[in-house]
Specification:
Elements (H helix, E strand, L loop, with lengths): L2 E5 L5 E5 L4 H10 L7 E4 L5 H12 L3 E4 L5 E4 L7 E2 L1 H4 L9 H8 L1 E5 L12 H9 L3 E5 L2 E5 L7 E3 L5 H12 L4 E5 L5 H12 L3 E3 L5 E5 L8 E3 L4 H13 L3 E5 L7 H9 L3 E4 L4 E4 L10 E2 L11 H9 L4 E5 L8 H7 L4 E5 L2 E5 L4 E2 L2 E3 L3 H12 L1 E2 L1 E5 L2 H6 L3 H7 L3 E5 L2
Parallel strand pairs: 2-15, 3-14, 6-7, 10-11, 18-19, 22-24, 23-25
Antiparallel strand pairs: 1-25, 1-26, 3-5, 4-5, 7-9, 8-9, 11-13, 12-13, 15-17, 16-17, 19-21, 20-21
Helix pairs in contact: 1-2, 1-7, 4-6, 5-6, 6-7, 8-10, 8-12, 10-12, 11-12
Bound molecules: uridine-diphosphate-N-acetylglucosamine (UD1).
């Protein structure tokens, strides 16, 4: 198992190109199952989760080709089975995203039930209840969701909780349903909007993307199209935090500044100077130590849970005391325990972390437990005395493209060692 070694103490300086968004490309690849013809998806990030999704589609018989610029051509017309097996779903929960499209387009789906994961129980009841309300017959047997429907019917759905992949699954299913579907309390995340834009380019009739009410007028078929995936706001935010923590200056390119409002406000509160253009963000910390920033995670447009761990890392070396409250997932402070081993002063009380900043952390061997936790441990390594060894970095390869190359480009001391 590969490990990363980070030699801390250098301020990051320079430009970094932001990749396509993991959380947008995964539903968009699932949406290709709805098309009657080939689709070309551009700005695809080179990530383990993308490889897993391609393997998943490939097992179903879908034809896929990737060119040297990571554009993926998907031809779903060769599909011969509607199954998402356990061995793939257990490595990537977002595999559940094929459920809605398979059911809507092919009338059946057999998708392994994703289990719990390091950050909480993560049920999929809202996905299943929504599809059942649209007329699907759904059984859960032997760890698999088995769903059938002749043709889904439009329905009014009021989601109990704001769920990103739940909204996406139901949105995709509604595109080919008979009649109108209204999804209330829908997720407003930019990745949901990106999926809706892709579906519209395929001929879907969707209104209200980016609001909490989506209205979908079902059509009888969707066609192929070419679509370019949105930039990754979480990757962008992670590099900006790296700049802020190290007292450096970082410019993120090919990004989507409008999707980062809540994160940029917190970085300014930490004392960073931020400049924004159409597709770039520059952060300058001018050699200073960040100030402590308190926050609470919540669905978009509030502060994203996927940036929580990185802000815990920032606060470990900030001036002052911060409280960070996690409201989206129940168990998302595993990184805090690892950071304590690096000398961070963090106390966890229920779903809140209370962090008293120290001037520097001390290197220690640490273990990544999930995707964003691993990013935060790398950030902590950047401000530690000595060499930090981060183990189990397969988590980071699921969601960050070439992280060590990009950080090295900014002047960080980081290298991968085969384990
Ligand atoms: C997506 C993102 C993930 C992000 C999360 C929250 C993808 C591929 N992943 O995950 O990076 O951290 O949104 O922004 O886009 N819930 C239920 N029942 C359900 C579904 C969800 O109770 O049927 C609960 C979850 O347990 C959680 C909350 O709703 O507490 C939000 O989860 P959800 O938005 O569904 O997360 P994902 O879509 O899995």
């Amino acid at each position: 198992m590969d490990k990363l070694i980070i030699s801390g103490g250098r301020p990051l300086e320079g430009d970094v190109r932001i990749s396509g968004a993991k959380n947008a490309v995964l539903p968009i690849l699932a949406a290709t199952l709805l098309a009657d013809g080939p689709m070309t998806i551009g700005n695809v990030p080179h990530l383990q989760d993308v490889t897993t999704t391609m393997e998943l589609l490939g097992r179903m018989g879908v034809s896929l080709t990737v060119d040297e610029r990571m554009r993926i051509e998907v031809d779903p017309s060769t599909l011969h089975q509607c199954v998402a097996p356990y061995e793939l779903v257990r490595t990537m929960r977002a595999s559940i995203l094929v459920l809605g499209p398979l059911l809507a387009r092919y009338g059946e789906a057999e998708v392994s039930l994703p289990g719990g994961c390091a950050i909480g129980s993560r049920p999929v009841n809202i996905h299943l209840e929504g599809l059942a309300a649209m007329g699907a017959d759904i059984r859960v047997e032997g760890g698999y969701i088995r769903a059938r429907a002749n043709r889904l019917k439009g329905a009014r759905l009021v989601l109990d909780t704001v769920t990103v992949t739940g909204t996406e699954n139901l949105l995709m299913a509604a595109c080919l349903a008979d009649g109108i579907t209204v999804i209330e309390n829908a997720a407003r995340e930019p990745e949901v909007v990106d999926l809706a834009n892709c579906l519209k380019a395929m001929g879907a009739r969707i209104h209200g993307a980016g609001t909490d009410t989506l209205t979908v007028e079902g059509v009888s078929s969707l066609h192929g199209c070419e679509y370019r995936v949105l930039a990754d706001r979480i990757e962008t935010g992670t590099f900006l935090v790296a700049g802020a923590m190290t007292g450096g200056r970082v410019r993120t390119r090919d990004t989507a500044p409008k999707t980062l409002d809540a994160v940029l406000l917190k970085l300014e509160e930490a004392g960073a100077h931020i400049n924004v253009g159409e597709d770039w963000i520059e952060l300058d910390m001018q050699g200073r130590r960040p100030r402590a920033v308190s926050l609470r995670t919540a669905p978009y447009p509030a502060f994203p849970t996927d940036m929580q761990a990185q802000f815990v890392a920032l606060n470990t070396v900030a001036e002052g005391i911060a409280t960070i409250t996690e409201t989206v997932f129940e168990n998302r402070f595993m990184h805090a325990l690892e950071m304590q081993r690096m000398g961070a002063d963090i106390r966890i009380e229920g779903n809140t972390a209370i962090i008293r900043g120290v001037p520097r952390l001390k290197a220690a061997p640490v273990m990544a437990t999930d995707l964003r936790a691993s990013a935060s441990l790398i950030l902590a390594g950047l401000v530690s005395d000595g060499d930090t060894l981060v183990d189990r970095i397969y988590h980071i390869d699921r969601g960050y493209e070439c992280i060590e190359e990009k950080l090295s480009q900014l002047g960080a001391g980081i290298r991968r060692v085969p384990g």
